[in-house]
Specification:
The chain has about 140 residues and is α/β, with parallel strands linked by helices. The protein has helices at about 5-15, 35-40, 50-70, 90-95, 105-120, 135-145; strands at about 20-25, 25-30, 30-35, 80, 100-105, 130. The chain folds into two domains: about 5-40, no CATH class; about 50-145, no CATH class.
Length: about 140
C-alpha cells in the first residue's frame, strides 16, 4: 500500500499532467523549474498557462458538439466562461478569443468587463449572464453595461 501524498496524487490524477515533469526530484512545467520560481517569487504561487486555458475551452466545446450531435439536440448551446474563476484581464482576453460568452456574479466582474470593452476586447454581441446576489452596485453596472 502506498500512502505518501505524492502517491495519492499520482494514483488519483495520473500526475504529472501534460507539460509537467519531474526533474531531479522537483516539479517543472514546460522545462521551467517551479522550485526556482517559488524560491524567486515566494508562496503562495499561482501559475497561469494561457494556451492550456484555450485548449480546455476548445475541448469542452468539442465534447458538447459531439454530445449535441449524438443526441440530436435541437436547442442552442453557448459556452459561458465564469469570470469569478479568474479575474485577470489577460485570462478574459484569452477566453474571449475562443468565441465564448461570459457569466458574472458580482459588481467587480462588470468593472473588468467594462474596462475590456472600452479597449475593444469585448464585442457588443457577447452574451453576458448575470448570476449571483444583485447588490445595488451590481444592478447599476448591469444597466450601464
Amino acid at each position: 500500500m502506498k500512502n505518501t501524498y505524492f502517491d495519492l496524487i499520482d494514483q488519483s490524477y495520473y500526475f504529472p499532467h501534460s507539460g509537467f515533469d519531474m526533474r531531479n526530484g522537483y516539479l517543472s512545467f514546460h522545462g521551467i523549474s517551479l522550485k526556482y520560481l517559488i524560491e524567486k517569487y515566494g508562496t503562495p504561487f499561482r501559475l497561469m498557462y494561457l494556451p492550456g486555458i484555450a485548449n480546455q475551452i476548445k475541448k469542452a466545446k468539442n465534447l458538447f458538439a459531439r454530445g449535441i450531435k449524438k443526441n440530436s439536440y435541437k436547442g442552442k448551446y453557448h459556452y459561458c466562461y465564469c469570470t469569478k474563476c479568474n479575474h485577470f484581464s489577460y485570462v478574459l482576453e484569452t477566453v474571449l478569443k475562443e468565441g465564448v460568452q461570459l457569466e458574472t456574479s458580482s459588481s467587480f466582474d462588470l468593472d473588468l468587463i467594462w474596462n475590456l470593452y472600452k479597449k475593444g476586447k469585448v464585442a457588443k454581441d457577447v452574451i453576458i449572464v448575470h448570476n449571483g446576489y444583485k447588490t445595488e452596485s451590481y444592478l447599476e453596472k448591469i444597466v450601464m453595461l
